Amino acid sequence: MKRILLVIIVVLLVFSCGYYIYEVAVQGASPTENLGRLIVVLLSCLIALNRIRQSGIGQRAERKPLSFYEKHFWQQLEHVYSRDAKSRKKLLEAIRYFDEDKFAPALKILENLKKARPAKREFNCLCLFSALCYTDWGLTDAAIKEYETILITEPNHVTALGNLGLIYSKNGDYSAAEKYLIASIAADPNYVYGYNNLAYVYYRTGDFGVAMEYAHKTLEIQSNFRQSLTLLAILYFAKGDEENYKKYRELAVINGESGEVIDNIASEIKERYEEDDAESED
Questions:
Q1: Which of 70, 101, 154, 214 could serve as 199's disulfide partner, Cβ 3.0–4.6 Å?
Q2: pLDDT of residue 3
Q3: Separate counts of helices (H) and strands (E) for the chain
Q4: Which residues of 169-180 are buried (b: 16+ CB within 10 A; e: fewer)?
Q5: How far are the Cα atoms of 207, 239, 243, 273, 277 from residue 280, in angstroms, in the given order?
Q6: What's the pLDDT tens digit per position in 127-178?
């Protein structure tokens, strides 16, 4: 659409100049007769072109260099293809496509690298980024298969366990989510995402007490973890603990959460919490 707009402006500019020349040279019009109209058109087109230039219309966004991905994913890429610069570059290109939401070319590169039958470390890294592509593409069944492939040779692969837990949680399979998330923190007791995501699993299944325990454990590892701060604010509000509600709400907002969102969810959860208490009374 933007390119079409650019073409239309250029065509209008050329047509206006050509028509003015035609009127003067062919029809014998006075050079000053329609000069004002031409100037208005020319100025309008030039202003539009300048705005297009300033907004970057028609220009390609600058791509991030491969070195950016080398640094950003250093943990996942550590020692991967350390003696094969060509394959490592191909992997980085796939990661760049993944970052640009171009999942098809990313997966094509990853699958071609798999066909070369790389060693376990390299193969599992390829499966990891394939799973990330499939997840962001909305193909969660394919992502699950990639993570399960990793776990065949690396049963304590923290990222695979944690991401499987997250996928199952989003799909509403909380039993499977709990299984994989517990395994992830068993593999790495400092895996902060495992604790946070477990807190949300228990929150969604109505086990608010356990949810609070895991949210607090999350904050013991990373004190500014926004999602756990938000969850604690909501659950303390549901319990009627005004002091802790205000404390964690403020901390969550400081770390980027919307206070209005917290208040709305907290009110809904409090109603549910009170209904559960009423049902449990004799």
A1: 214
A2: 61
A3: 15, 0
A4: beeeebebbbeb
A5: 14, 15, 26, 11, 5
A6: 999 999 999 999 999 999 999 999 999 999 999 999 999 999 999 999 999 9
Q: What percent of the chain is modeled with pLDDT above 90? A: 69
Query: Which H helix or E strand runs over 76?
Result: helix 74-77
The whole-angstrom separation of Cα 157 and Cα 134 is 18
- 84: closest CA among 109, 113, 111? 113
Separation of alpha carbons 78 and 218, rounded Å: 26
Give the torsion sign (CA, 69, 70, 72, 78): positive
Please give the helix or strand (H or E) that residue 49 lies within, else none: helix 35-55
Model-level pTM?
0.74
Confidence band, pLDDT 50/70/90 cuts, at residue 271: confident
